Amino acid sequence: MAFFGAGEAKKATAAARLAGRLPAGQSLTEKWPVLTYGDTPVVPTDRWRLKVVGLLERELDLDWQQFLALPQTTMTADFHCVTGWSRFDNAWEGVRFLDLMKEAGLRPEARYVAMYCYGGYTTNLPLASMLDADVLIAHRHDGRDLEPQHGGPVRVVVPKRYAYKSAKWIGGLALTADNQPGFWEVRGYHNDADPWKEERYSF
Questions:
Q1: Residue 173 bridge partners (DSSP)
Q2: Above 50 in pLDDT, residue 1?
Q3: What pTM does this model have?
């Protein structure tokens, strides 16, 4: 894939915005910038686990093979970073959050999802946002296994929210009745993070 030059990037950004595909305040890129606070965890798949706990009928503790044995979904979605860049047509592969919840069974009092990552990062979203059909627990991107710098071996992908909600290096999901603000949320970033509403900050 050829990267945009400066002139081509401006033209592509303007065309995408005119087509109603690019949120306000965003610029289009074909690159995939790496933005991480702190060190990048390297988690071998033979030591990776995903624990799904909280307000569920059955809590889950999945190793790599059990995770891959769940129904796999491939989808194409755009990706919007709160810092102002967007990357179109990302091909993701993984397990839909919806299908994970079918395995676990949601209890009616569940309202929020707290996400816990290798390396200590956390974030959160209302359950309603996570139940969109395009929310994945992804392990592949554009036909390749996710590299550690991009959240591998597994990351959350929430296309309708800014990318800080698409937690890298996911290791745990907790279904809760109350909101539990994550790393960036307690530092002033928006709890819902809808790029079409420019919900970047909570103030």
A1: 52, 115
A2: no
A3: 0.90
